[in-house]
Amino acid sequence: MLIGKITRRLYAYFLASKKTLYNFLLKLLSNIYQLLNKKKYSSLFFENLLSNRATLDSVENFIEKKSYESSNDLYGLPRNRIKYINKKINQYPTYTDLLTFFPKALKLKNINYVEIGVSVLKNFYQISNSVEMSTLYAFDINDINPSIAKNFKLTNENQNIKSYNYKSNKIHYYKGDVFNHDDLKSFSKLVDKANIIFSDANHSPEGVLSEFDFLIKNILDDNFLIYYDDLNKNIENAFNYIVKDLGSKYPKIKAGSFLINGWLGQNEKMHRNGFITNTGYIEILERNNVKLLDMRIVK
Ligand SMILES: C[S@@+](CC[C@H](N)C(=O)[O-])C[C@H]1O[C@@H](n2cnc3c(N)ncnc32)[C@H](O)[C@@H]1O
After folding, report:
1. Which of 272, 118, 135, 126 has its CA nearest to residue 194?
2. Pair 96, 79 in one domain
3. Is the Cβ atom of 202 under 6 angstroms away from ligand 1?
4. Based on the domain organization, do 222 and 252 belong to the same domain?
5. What is the pLDDT at residue 34?
6. Is the CB of 98 under 6 A from ligand 1?
7. Which residue, among 144, 185, 178, has the nearest Cα to 161 in the 3D structure?
8. pLDDT tier, 14 (very low <50, low <70, confident <90, very high otherwise)
9. Lowest pLDDT segment from 28-42, 75-89, 164-178, 223-237
10. Residue 119 beta carbon below 6 angstroms from any ligand 1 atom
């Protein structure tokens, strides 16, 4: 019995070390690629990127220890990575740079932005500082992170919805669960129409399909970008199903996936991200000299 226990422990340790080593190597490769990448982005894209870095620099601490420990899932930020949340990010694009560039590139005004899984509001706060006269909707299983919410002016509080003004934007924070269909349905009534939807909550096929069926497909505006973080192998089939489903209603949509930095920038390995859009955004990015690494077109 003791030998069995020791063997199981050693095996678990071996698996954990293998994963750590694998992630370390991928992070190293990502950093080498970023150092060698001498691409000169268009000034429009680069100014947008610098403005996002300035927003990050304006925040001293994204999350207080007390709020972090009070979250059942630690705001989706594992203990071994919290040390990176306030670390400076280099000038290689992150998903936030792509999301904030979308309305600028397409000259969209008064946008409706939806983020499913906002965590400590790191990406959401950069969006809030990037757009004007827009309405931004956040959905998360956690309470809003007070370290960032203190910058917003609370205008209304009703059950699980908190509303704020921030600069010229309106913000609605909905506390809900992507596995609860009633939450998603009442959130979709609140949103009505969205131009940008960022899916970054529960990265399982069930989670992604639930939010698609009960929220995303009912709120698409005339020009839309649906953006997925962590489009790993386990949700590839769900992503393909979503592309097929939308393709029957919007025959001209384009969809694919690529590698890019996430919320911790160069401090972790690149993420595989996915997009679905009925606009020419990918061609616009190419014209702005933004190369998306290992692009795999699905449609
Ligand atoms: C990776 S974090 C989001 C990071 C954020 N989008 C950013 O870029 O700054 C994922 C968030 O989704 C939340 N989440 C996980 N499962 C969820 C669920 N079933 N319903 C709603 N939110 C969930 C986590 O608590 C966490 O706050």
Report:
1. 135
2. yes
3. yes
4. yes
5. 83
6. no
7. 144
8. low
9. 28-42
10. yes
The mean of the pLDDT values for the chain is 94
What are the Cα distances from residue 124, in Å, to 87, 154, 174, 237, 239? Answer: 17, 16, 13, 28, 23
Contact 113 CB / ligand 1 (< 6 Å): no
Cβ neighbors of 16 (< 8 A, separation 6 or more) are none
CA dihedral 276, 280, 286, 289 (to 10 degrees): -110
Total domains present in the chain:
2
If you measure from the C-alpha of residue 45 to the centroid of ligand 1, how many angstroms do you get, rounded to a whole number? 27
The CA-based angle 156-122-169, given to 5 degrees, is: 40
Is any ligand 1 atom within 6 A of the Cβ of residue 118? yes
Q: Detail the DSSP E strand segments found in 82-151.
A: 112-116, 135-140
Residue in 280, 273, 286 with CA at minimum distance from that of residue 107: 280
Q: In the chain, pLDDT over 90 holds for what percent of residues?
A: 86
The 10s digit of each residue's pLDDT in 126-155 is 999 999 999 999 999 999 999 999 999 999
Ligand 1 atom with the smallest distance to the CA of 177 is: 20
The angle, 0 to 180 degrees and rounded to 10, between the axes of the packed helices 43-57 and 95-105 is: 130
Q: Do 60 and 6 lie in a common domain?
A: no
Q: Which domain CATH number covers 229?
A: 3.40.50.150
CA distance 194 to 211: 14
Domain that holds residue 268: 41-297
The residue behind tokens 């509001």 is 121
**Torsion region of 239: left, alpha or beta (phi above 0 gives left; psi -120 to 50 gives alpha):** alpha
